[in-house]
Specification:
This protein has helices at residues 4-7, 11-23, 26-33, 37-51, 67-87, 106-123, 175-180, 211-214, 227-235, 245-248, 274-277, 280-300, and strands at 56-59, 62-65, 98-104, 127-133, 147-151, 160-174, 194-197, 219-223, 240-244, 254-257, 264-272, 303-304. It has 305 residues and is α/β, with parallel strands linked by helices. Helix 2 crosses helix 3 (26-33), helix 2 (11-23) packs across helix 5 (67-87) and helix 6 (106-123) crosses helix 12 (280-300).
Length: 305
Protein backbone atom coordinates (compact mmCIF):
# COMPACT_ATOMS: atom_id res chain seq x y z
CA UNK A 1 0.00 0.00 0.00
CA UNK A 2 1.23 3.51 -0.84
CA UNK A 3 2.41 5.51 2.17
CA UNK A 4 0.27 8.68 1.98
CA UNK A 5 2.20 10.36 4.81
CA UNK A 6 5.48 9.92 2.90
CA UNK A 7 4.07 11.90 -0.04
CA UNK A 8 2.72 14.72 2.11
CA UNK A 9 4.49 18.05 1.64
CA UNK A 10 6.54 19.15 4.65
CA UNK A 11 5.13 22.45 5.95
CA UNK A 12 8.56 23.46 7.27
CA UNK A 13 9.97 23.11 3.76
CA UNK A 14 7.23 25.39 2.44
CA UNK A 15 8.26 28.03 4.98
CA UNK A 16 11.91 27.63 3.96
CA UNK A 17 10.92 28.13 0.32
CA UNK A 18 8.93 31.22 1.31
CA UNK A 19 11.97 32.66 3.10
CA UNK A 20 14.18 32.06 0.06
CA UNK A 21 11.60 33.74 -2.19
CA UNK A 22 11.41 36.75 0.12
CA UNK A 23 15.17 37.14 0.48
CA UNK A 24 16.19 36.10 -3.03
CA UNK A 25 19.26 34.24 -1.74
CA UNK A 26 19.87 30.87 -0.09
CA UNK A 27 22.53 32.41 2.15
CA UNK A 28 20.23 35.21 3.34
CA UNK A 29 17.39 32.76 3.93
CA UNK A 30 19.74 30.50 5.87
CA UNK A 31 20.83 33.41 8.07
CA UNK A 32 17.21 34.37 8.76
CA UNK A 33 16.28 30.76 9.59
CA UNK A 34 19.35 29.98 11.69
CA UNK A 35 20.44 27.26 9.26
CA UNK A 36 23.37 26.89 6.86
CA UNK A 37 22.81 27.40 3.14
CA UNK A 38 23.58 23.75 2.36
CA UNK A 39 20.68 22.69 4.57
CA UNK A 40 18.40 25.22 2.90
CA UNK A 41 19.36 23.93 -0.55
CA UNK A 42 18.80 20.35 0.58
CA UNK A 43 15.34 21.16 1.95
CA UNK A 44 14.36 22.95 -1.27
CA UNK A 45 15.54 19.91 -3.26
CA UNK A 46 13.45 17.64 -1.04
CA UNK A 47 10.42 19.84 -1.60
CA UNK A 48 11.00 19.75 -5.37
CA UNK A 49 11.08 15.94 -5.27
CA UNK A 50 7.87 15.88 -3.24
CA UNK A 51 6.09 18.24 -5.65
CA UNK A 52 7.60 16.80 -8.81
CA UNK A 53 9.27 19.82 -10.40
CA UNK A 54 11.60 22.81 -10.15
CA UNK A 55 10.49 25.53 -7.76
CA UNK A 56 13.12 28.21 -8.31
CA UNK A 57 15.12 29.59 -11.21
CA UNK A 58 18.00 32.05 -11.25
CA UNK A 59 17.20 35.66 -12.13
CA UNK A 60 19.17 38.87 -12.19
CA UNK A 61 18.15 39.69 -8.62
CA UNK A 62 18.56 36.21 -7.13
CA UNK A 63 16.16 33.28 -7.19
CA UNK A 64 12.73 33.69 -8.80
CA UNK A 65 9.86 31.20 -8.53
CA UNK A 66 8.72 28.97 -11.37
CA UNK A 67 4.94 28.57 -11.89
CA UNK A 68 5.05 25.51 -9.62
CA UNK A 69 7.16 27.51 -7.17
CA UNK A 70 4.55 30.28 -7.09
CA UNK A 71 1.88 27.74 -6.13
CA UNK A 72 4.12 26.32 -3.42
CA UNK A 73 4.96 29.81 -2.13
CA UNK A 74 1.25 30.63 -1.98
CA UNK A 75 0.77 27.54 0.17
CA UNK A 76 3.70 28.63 2.34
CA UNK A 77 2.14 32.08 2.72
CA UNK A 78 -1.05 30.49 4.03
CA UNK A 79 0.95 28.43 6.53
CA UNK A 80 2.90 31.54 7.54
CA UNK A 81 -0.30 33.56 7.93
CA UNK A 82 -1.79 30.89 10.19
CA UNK A 83 1.38 30.89 12.30
CA UNK A 84 1.29 34.69 12.59
CA UNK A 85 -2.37 34.56 13.59
CA UNK A 86 -1.58 31.98 16.25
CA UNK A 87 1.47 33.88 17.55
CA UNK A 88 -0.30 37.26 17.65
CA UNK A 89 -3.45 36.04 19.37
CA UNK A 90 -4.72 37.69 22.56
CA UNK A 91 -2.42 35.57 24.73
CA UNK A 92 0.71 36.28 22.67
CA UNK A 93 3.22 39.07 22.97
CA UNK A 94 2.72 42.13 20.76
CA UNK A 95 6.44 42.46 19.93
CA UNK A 96 7.24 42.20 16.22
CA UNK A 97 10.43 40.42 15.16
CA UNK A 98 11.16 40.63 11.44
CA UNK A 99 13.51 41.95 8.75
CA UNK A 100 12.02 44.15 6.01
CA UNK A 101 13.98 44.99 2.88
CA UNK A 102 13.01 48.16 1.02
CA UNK A 103 14.33 49.55 -2.26
CA UNK A 104 13.87 53.22 -3.17
CA UNK A 105 15.45 56.02 -5.22
CA UNK A 106 18.32 57.98 -3.66
CA UNK A 107 16.35 61.10 -2.72
CA UNK A 108 13.48 59.17 -1.14
CA UNK A 109 15.95 56.95 0.71
CA UNK A 110 17.57 59.86 2.53
CA UNK A 111 14.57 62.17 2.98
CA UNK A 112 11.98 59.57 3.94
CA UNK A 113 13.06 55.92 4.14
CA UNK A 114 16.06 56.31 6.46
CA UNK A 115 14.34 58.53 9.06
CA UNK A 116 11.20 56.38 8.84
CA UNK A 117 13.23 53.25 9.55
CA UNK A 118 14.96 54.91 12.50
CA UNK A 119 11.67 56.14 13.99
CA UNK A 120 10.06 52.72 13.56
CA UNK A 121 13.00 50.85 15.08
CA UNK A 122 12.88 53.14 18.14
CA UNK A 123 9.31 51.94 18.78
CA UNK A 124 9.78 48.35 17.60
CA UNK A 125 13.38 47.23 18.27
CA UNK A 126 12.60 43.80 16.81
CA UNK A 127 12.04 45.27 13.34
CA UNK A 128 15.15 45.60 11.19
CA UNK A 129 14.84 47.62 7.97
CA UNK A 130 17.31 47.08 5.14
CA UNK A 131 17.35 49.93 2.60
CA UNK A 132 18.64 49.44 -0.94
CA UNK A 133 19.13 52.71 -2.80
CA UNK A 134 18.28 52.23 -6.48
CA UNK A 135 16.40 54.11 -9.20
CA UNK A 136 14.69 51.62 -11.48
CA UNK A 137 11.38 50.30 -12.74
CA UNK A 138 9.33 48.04 -10.49
CA UNK A 139 10.72 44.52 -10.71
CA UNK A 140 8.69 41.78 -12.36
CA UNK A 141 9.92 39.24 -9.81
CA UNK A 142 10.08 40.62 -6.27
CA UNK A 143 12.59 38.15 -4.83
CA UNK A 144 14.92 39.79 -2.35
CA UNK A 145 12.77 42.84 -1.59
CA UNK A 146 9.57 43.34 0.40
CA UNK A 147 8.76 46.94 -0.54
CA UNK A 148 9.70 48.89 -3.66
CA UNK A 149 9.32 52.65 -4.02
CA UNK A 150 9.51 53.76 -7.63
CA UNK A 151 9.10 56.98 -9.59
CA UNK A 152 6.04 56.91 -11.85
CA UNK A 153 3.03 54.62 -11.89
CA UNK A 154 4.27 51.04 -12.30
CA UNK A 155 2.84 48.24 -14.41
CA UNK A 156 2.92 45.27 -12.07
CA UNK A 157 1.49 41.76 -11.90
CA UNK A 158 1.00 39.65 -8.79
CA UNK A 159 1.61 42.72 -6.61
CA UNK A 160 -0.18 45.66 -5.04
CA UNK A 161 0.73 49.23 -6.00
CA UNK A 162 -0.51 52.56 -4.73
CA UNK A 163 0.36 56.22 -5.00
CA UNK A 164 2.57 57.22 -2.09
CA UNK A 165 3.26 60.90 -2.70
CA UNK A 166 4.37 63.51 -5.20
CA UNK A 167 7.07 66.12 -5.59
CA UNK A 168 8.29 68.73 -8.08
CA UNK A 169 11.36 69.15 -10.25
CA UNK A 170 12.62 72.69 -10.69
CA UNK A 171 15.64 74.43 -12.20
CA UNK A 172 18.39 75.67 -9.87
CA UNK A 173 21.78 77.34 -10.07
CA UNK A 174 24.35 78.27 -7.45
CA UNK A 175 25.17 81.82 -6.43
CA UNK A 176 28.69 81.22 -7.76
CA UNK A 177 27.37 80.14 -11.15
CA UNK A 178 25.12 83.21 -11.41
CA UNK A 179 28.08 85.52 -10.74
CA UNK A 180 29.56 84.51 -14.11
CA UNK A 181 26.42 83.60 -16.08
CA UNK A 182 23.30 85.64 -16.80
CA UNK A 183 20.28 84.18 -15.03
CA UNK A 184 17.65 82.99 -17.53
CA UNK A 185 14.60 85.23 -17.57
CA UNK A 186 12.52 83.07 -19.89
CA UNK A 187 12.50 79.49 -21.09
CA UNK A 188 14.33 80.16 -24.33
CA UNK A 189 17.26 81.60 -22.38
CA UNK A 190 18.03 78.12 -21.05
CA UNK A 191 19.61 77.12 -24.37
CA UNK A 192 22.60 79.26 -23.39
CA UNK A 193 23.21 77.12 -20.30
CA UNK A 194 24.30 73.51 -19.66
CA UNK A 195 22.14 71.00 -17.83
CA UNK A 196 22.90 68.89 -14.76
CA UNK A 197 20.65 65.80 -14.70
CA UNK A 198 20.49 62.05 -15.27
CA UNK A 199 22.46 60.22 -17.96
CA UNK A 200 19.80 59.74 -20.59
CA UNK A 201 21.35 56.68 -22.21
CA UNK A 202 21.40 54.64 -18.99
CA UNK A 203 18.24 55.96 -17.35
CA UNK A 204 16.05 52.98 -16.42
CA UNK A 205 12.91 54.98 -15.63
CA UNK A 206 11.26 56.56 -18.66
CA UNK A 207 9.18 58.74 -16.36
CA UNK A 208 12.36 60.56 -15.29
CA UNK A 209 13.44 61.32 -18.86
CA UNK A 210 11.61 64.64 -18.70
CA UNK A 211 14.56 66.93 -19.42
CA UNK A 212 14.37 66.15 -23.13
CA UNK A 213 10.69 67.11 -23.13
CA UNK A 214 10.77 70.29 -21.03
CA UNK A 215 14.33 71.46 -21.77
CA UNK A 216 15.03 70.17 -25.30
CA UNK A 217 17.57 72.88 -26.21
CA UNK A 218 19.85 72.41 -23.22
CA UNK A 219 23.04 70.42 -23.65
CA UNK A 220 24.44 68.33 -20.81
CA UNK A 221 27.30 69.41 -18.58
CA UNK A 222 27.42 66.97 -15.65
CA UNK A 223 25.21 63.88 -15.70
CA UNK A 224 24.93 61.06 -13.17
CA UNK A 225 22.77 58.15 -12.10
CA UNK A 226 22.72 59.61 -8.57
CA UNK A 227 20.49 62.57 -7.71
CA UNK A 228 22.86 63.68 -4.94
CA UNK A 229 25.54 64.10 -7.60
CA UNK A 230 23.11 66.39 -9.44
CA UNK A 231 22.69 68.54 -6.35
CA UNK A 232 26.40 68.75 -5.58
CA UNK A 233 27.39 69.44 -9.20
CA UNK A 234 24.84 72.26 -9.30
CA UNK A 235 26.11 73.68 -6.02
CA UNK A 236 29.65 73.56 -7.43
CA UNK A 237 28.64 75.65 -10.45
CA UNK A 238 28.50 72.85 -13.01
CA UNK A 239 25.42 74.25 -14.73
CA UNK A 240 21.71 74.53 -14.16
CA UNK A 241 20.35 71.52 -12.31
CA UNK A 242 16.93 69.99 -12.81
CA UNK A 243 16.45 68.99 -9.19
CA UNK A 244 13.74 67.76 -6.81
CA UNK A 245 12.59 70.84 -4.91
CA UNK A 246 12.45 68.88 -1.64
CA UNK A 247 16.20 68.32 -1.94
CA UNK A 248 17.39 71.57 -3.53
CA UNK A 249 15.46 73.88 -1.20
CA UNK A 250 17.53 72.61 1.71
CA UNK A 251 20.59 74.44 0.36
CA UNK A 252 20.88 78.20 0.83
CA UNK A 253 23.52 78.42 -1.90
CA UNK A 254 21.05 77.29 -4.58
CA UNK A 255 18.68 79.71 -6.34
CA UNK A 256 15.40 78.57 -7.87
CA UNK A 257 15.14 79.77 -11.49
CA UNK A 258 12.02 80.34 -13.60
CA UNK A 259 9.83 79.54 -10.62
CA UNK A 260 6.27 78.93 -11.80
CA UNK A 261 7.36 78.22 -15.38
CA UNK A 262 9.27 75.04 -14.67
CA UNK A 263 7.43 72.93 -12.10
CA UNK A 264 7.49 69.35 -13.29
CA UNK A 265 5.27 67.06 -11.18
CA UNK A 266 6.66 63.63 -10.28
CA UNK A 267 5.12 60.76 -8.32
CA UNK A 268 6.33 58.13 -5.90
CA UNK A 269 4.54 54.77 -5.97
CA UNK A 270 4.85 51.88 -3.54
CA UNK A 271 4.84 48.27 -4.77
CA UNK A 272 4.62 45.14 -2.63
CA UNK A 273 3.22 41.65 -2.82
CA UNK A 274 -0.11 41.13 -1.09
CA UNK A 275 1.41 38.49 1.19
CA UNK A 276 4.20 40.88 2.19
CA UNK A 277 1.71 43.57 3.13
CA UNK A 278 0.00 41.10 5.47
CA UNK A 279 3.19 40.76 7.52
CA UNK A 280 2.92 43.04 10.58
CA UNK A 281 6.46 44.41 10.13
CA UNK A 282 5.95 45.28 6.45
CA UNK A 283 2.62 46.94 7.23
CA UNK A 284 4.33 48.91 10.01
CA UNK A 285 7.04 50.12 7.61
CA UNK A 286 4.45 51.26 5.06
CA UNK A 287 2.52 53.16 7.73
CA UNK A 288 5.72 54.79 8.98
CA UNK A 289 6.70 55.87 5.46
CA UNK A 290 3.36 57.66 5.15
CA UNK A 291 3.76 59.27 8.57
CA UNK A 292 7.30 60.44 7.79
CA UNK A 293 6.17 61.97 4.50
CA UNK A 294 3.56 63.94 6.44
CA UNK A 295 6.15 65.00 8.99
CA UNK A 296 8.59 66.28 6.38
CA UNK A 297 6.09 67.98 4.08
CA UNK A 298 6.61 71.50 5.36
CA UNK A 299 10.39 71.23 5.31
CA UNK A 300 11.06 69.42 2.07
CA UNK A 301 8.17 70.09 -0.28
CA UNK A 302 7.47 66.37 -0.45
CA UNK A 303 3.69 65.91 -0.37
CA UNK A 304 1.69 62.93 0.83
CA UNK A 305 -1.11 61.93 -1.49
Amino acid sequence: MCNVAARRTNADDLLILLTVARSGRFTRAAEALGLNHVTVARRISALERALGGKLLTRSGSGWAPTPLGERAIAAGERVDALMIELETGPEATTAIEDVVRLSAPDGFTVAVAAPAAAQLHARHPGISVEIVSVTRRAAQHRSGVDIEVVVGEPAVVRAESFHLGHYLLGTYASHTYLQTHLAPEQLEDLKHHRLVYFIGTVLQVDYLDVARKYLPDMRDSVTSTNVFAHVEATRAGGGIGLLPTFMADRHDDLVRLLHGEIEIPMDYWLVARADALRRPAVSAVVDQLRTTIDQTEGLTGLHHS
